[in-house]
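Project standup — Tuesday

K.O.: blocked on the structure for the chain from last sprint. Re-posting the sequence here as requested.
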Amino acid sequence: QVQLVESGGGMVQPGGSLRLSCAASTSIFSIYAMGWYRQAPGKQRELVARITSGGSTNYADSVKGRFTISRDNAKNTVYLEMNRLKPEDTAVYYCNAHRVSNYWGQGTQVTVSS
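H.V.: unblocked you, prediction finished:
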């Protein structure tokens, strides 16, 4: 069982930045593929960014060039750096860990509004 705890959400104006963090409670964090997903009201949960155990990344087209996912295996933590935020980025952001099974965090709210 892996527990994931997100932090760093909040409210920001359009064009602003936020950094999300997700701390994992596992000593074998490095073997998990980690991802960030988001769910806006009335919409399905969607993949935002993903990083494999080897460090390869992929992003949703809507965030390419604005968001960066990274991981620190020594701290069992994955990050999502979000720049040039738009109102359509408003959602609950969830951290995911995957290796055979999927584990989810409780989510953190990101609101982009003037």
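K.O.: great, moving the ticket to review. The mean pLDDT is 96. The longest strand covers residues 91-99.
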